[in-house]
Amino acid sequence: MCRVPRPRFLPLALTATVAALSVALCSCSSTAGSAAGAPPAAAAGAGGDAPRMTQQEMNARPRAELRQGGTLTWAIDQYSTQWNPVQADGSEASTNDVVKALLPTFWRSDAGGVQTPNPAYLTDVRSELQQGKQVVVWTLNPKAHWSDGTPITWRDLRANWQALGGQDPAYKTATTNGFDQVESVVRGQDDYQAVMTFKEPYSEWQAMFNNAGNAPLLPERYVSTPELFNTSFKNRIPVTAGPFKVGSMDPKTRTVTAVADPGWWGDKPLLDKIVFRAYDTGAMPEAFAKGEVDFYNNGPNTEGYKLIRSTPGGEVRRAGGPNLRQLVLNGRSPLLEDARVRQALIQAIDRAEITRTDLAGLDWPYVPMNNHFLVPSQHGYQDNSNGLSRFDPDAARATLDSLGWKAGPNGVRGKDGKELVLRYVAPAANNLAANESEEVTRMLAAVGVTVQVQTVPAGEYFDGYVYKHDFDLTSFSLLGTPFPVSNSISTFQQDSGSNWAQVGSKALDKAMADAAKADTVDDETAALNRADTEAWQVAGLVPLYQRPAIYGVRKELANIGATGLGDVVYENIGLTK
């Protein structure tokens, strides 16, 4: 199962201000001069250097080389109940895969995370200082409109800011994504221009209204009040404004069919339709091998990797990216309220061994990830854990002893009449979660902590457990974006709707805020690493490893695959001639 946290920049023939900050910070290294399809260099084992990965593997082809028509069946891991991707219950990979075909994105992101304005929605965009304040002027394409005929105007941008600005807690947002730094959005020279003024500089302003940042524009009509924002996209997608529109939604078959929208004003979609069908992640490889699906996110599934390679007409597409696998400790669970207990548990878990067993059989390095915000090979990556990242069961035992959690006659630690027995919630049919829960159970038993694994239906995992904080321990993947600050703020901010561990600190909030308004790469990197130091101390989210971006794809499909720091241009997905 995958969650998508929230969320850098080059102009088109427009007037977008370029921020060199993003390019250096976001670009994952790649082999100089290597072809997009070149395989990554694998490290030999634990402790090796991070690989020099290809940036992207998409079978990129010009539209002229592709044929008109066809259907793509795309496997997603959950049929959503909340289709608003920036609502607290809607921030899922499956939701985003669907709505990105349907909703506006103001930007295009390339393999290195460089942002270019999308002319389908913007005719001009610029960021400038006015009287000491950052002002972004968004000039909209007057041809752009919602599927109900309503034009896209400055009012939509204002409504998105009011919903995501964090001023009204009744809006149950997954992220504020920089909108909390905005003080006003007003009409410009006409209805097709919005003038956005920031309270203080925001370095990642291009993450706004951006598919690469998992934050598309939403319509004013359906987000202008908390009730509308929270419920209008519940079990439906009421309006669209993209190259595809909703053809049908069927919760029984867990299928959404998107069809080419004849009212779309941009490049005509090459495909006739995209069928998004939900499968348990463990069932996807076999569905691909049987020809039921044409494209799916395999991730670090070794058996799936082998099956893709042996499937006639199928191929593996893989690349480096900002994705990670993580362990979550619920800081508000009665037995885990003390950060020192959580720190001890982290030291008792051999993350290198989990990485090795999760990734066995893949051409990927068995190297744990030791930073919450930056992946290995990303600019500024370093270990700020002050020793907490090191597997040290003796230190864990000593800490638990000092806190009064003493081993009882049965070997299980207890205190004040309570035993240290934790519940690990894992989604069914997920080989990674099964392995991780088994390994964590074994490792914590060695220091006197009992773990009881509760396997739950994959379709109920997020809605029924993660969102409700109904677990002591769990693990899932986070699919990142080109924006390391926007990507992570909501996950670590105190009292955020997406803070699954429910822990944080003022120092962590301050460091993230400093990163958000940084003027240079060095300033942002320094602030992110200060935030990482604090994240290790609050000990809620524990990075395991950089998650391999591995996809199973039909060979004839073009312009889709492992995007790296880029995004999918849905109207350009097509079949080779």
TrEMBL record:
GO molecular function: peptide transmembrane transporter activity
Pfam families: SBP_bac_5 (PF00496)
Leader sequence segment: 1-32
GO cellular component: ATP-binding cassette (ABC) transporter complex; periplasmic space
Matching CDD domains: PBP2_Lpqw
Presence of the UniProt keyword Nucleotidyltransferase in the record: no
Ranges where the Solute-binding protein family domain occurs: 128-499
Keywords, in A-Z order: Signal
This protein's name: Peptide/nickel transport system substrate-binding protein
Natural source organism: Kitasatospora cineracea
Lineage: Bacteria, Bacillati, Actinomycetota, Actinomycetes, Kitasatosporales
